[in-house]
Amino acid sequence: MGASGVVDLEYVTHDLSAESGVHYTAIGEGEGTLQFNPHEMAKPIVIPIINTGSYSLDKQFKIEVTKVSDESGKSLLSEYTQCTVTIANDSDSKEVMDKVMRLVNMDRQIYKLG
Questions:
Q1: Tell me: the pLDDT tens digits for 5-63?
Q2: Which of 60, 68, 63 is nearest to 83 (CA)?
């Protein structure tokens, strides 16, 4: 990216099974920008995930790169402009917590009876 000069990158998000404002914070047109300085080759894109407080299946949204340009304004956009992000389900953690709670409750009952 910024190996030989400054490169600007713009991106947006799109809902798939995940809903913006419910499962993640959307990045709209003109909001998602990164600037790569000379010799910078990577930067993170940070998309806040929203904890819904309920257990759910995997949810997905898409990040699309809409513009990549150098200092002169020349477009450097490649053919690979999108990626899918998966917000992993949390049902596995619910199952683990349910088992822990059952064990804790069993220990309490055994202790009371003993």
A1: 899 999 999 999 999 999 999 998 879 999 999 989 899 999 999 988 777 788 999 99
A2: 63
Q: What is the pTM of this model?
A: 0.71
How far separated are the first and last CA of the chain, in Å rounded?
68
Q: Which of 56, 113, 45, 55 has the alpha carbon at shortest distance from 85?
A: 45
pLDDT per position as a tens digit, 85-111: 999 876 666 676 677 777 776 555 555
In whole angstroms, give the CA distance from residue 11 to residue 27. 8
Report how far residue 46's alpha carbon sits from residue 111's, in angstroms, rounded to the nearest whole number. 48
What is the rounded CA–CA span in Å between residue 59 and residue 104? Answer: 32
* Nearest-5° Cα angle at 66, 63 to 67: 135
What residues are paired with 49 via a beta bridge?
A: 24
